[in-house]
Amino acid sequence: xxxxxxxxxxxxxxxxSCSKDQQQINVAKETYALPIDTLFPExxxxxxxxxxxxxxxxxxxxxxxVNVETGAARIFATGxxxxxxAATGLKIDQMQRLWVCGGADNKIQILNLNGTLIKSWNTxxxxxxxxxxxxxxxxxxxxxxxxxxxxxxxxSVTESTPGNMEEWLTFTDAxxxxxxxxxxxxxxxxxxDNKYLIIVVSSSGKLYRIEKTTKAISxxxxxxxVTSGDGLYLEGNTLYVSRNATNxxxxxxxxxxxxxxxxxxxxGTNLLFNTTIAKAGNYFLVxxxxxxxxxxxxxxxxxxxxxxxxxx
Length: 312
Description:
The chain is mainly beta. Helix content is 8%, strand content 44%. The strands form five sheets. It has an eight-stranded mixed sheet with strand order 14-15-16-17-21-20-19-18, with no helix packed on it. The radius of gyration is 20 Å and the shape is globular.
């Protein structure tokens, strides 16, 4: 009898624990105001366990941590203290570490979630890179796009301190066309079957599928291009493309082998040159980068912000 009672108590405790772990964090704000009037944010990564998201500055490399329930924002790590002049794409891997793309600074860095730097790579010195834009990880590696040089880089995500960065893929203009000016390879995602990477080329609005085992590259046939494509998010066979110059997010319904896609209607309100996106509950957290206002006579709308967008 005592054993049965103990078993029942144990089961109830486990259920209560699971219920607490699965409790959805409230994405409470429609808009998250960001400090620093010269910020110009670009990347975003959301940490489901804590309800914090991270974004970074293309002008200083500073990283911010923001809570989705309270909106409280703080400087998480300064670029100056970690020899980082810019921060673009961000991801939190399965070992709870933050990866930071360095844009034109061509750094790749990995940080603990307490803000300390674990390791840094200078990809320009290593590979002659041009602009480290965005990244995505799978169960073994993390991959990085280069918007100016026809290469993809990667390193391991299975080690506590990752080892060498490698020049994983080089391709020709015939395989993936680049323009001499403007942004080329940008957002990147991995497919759920772990077979492919998908990248968007902002300048042409084309999507490409890269088979990871053979490194074969195929253009994904679209009914219309997704020009100004920036951050990507893939859920099942729906690829969401943040198209910065349109101030909208567009769903692309892909076929089962990711060779064809149908671009749907754009959605989102009050977006300002939206760059990257992260999923939090039933919403996207969308960075209002306003990168089109870095130069010229039109100043950015202050404060800089991240917008909560319901996913249709």
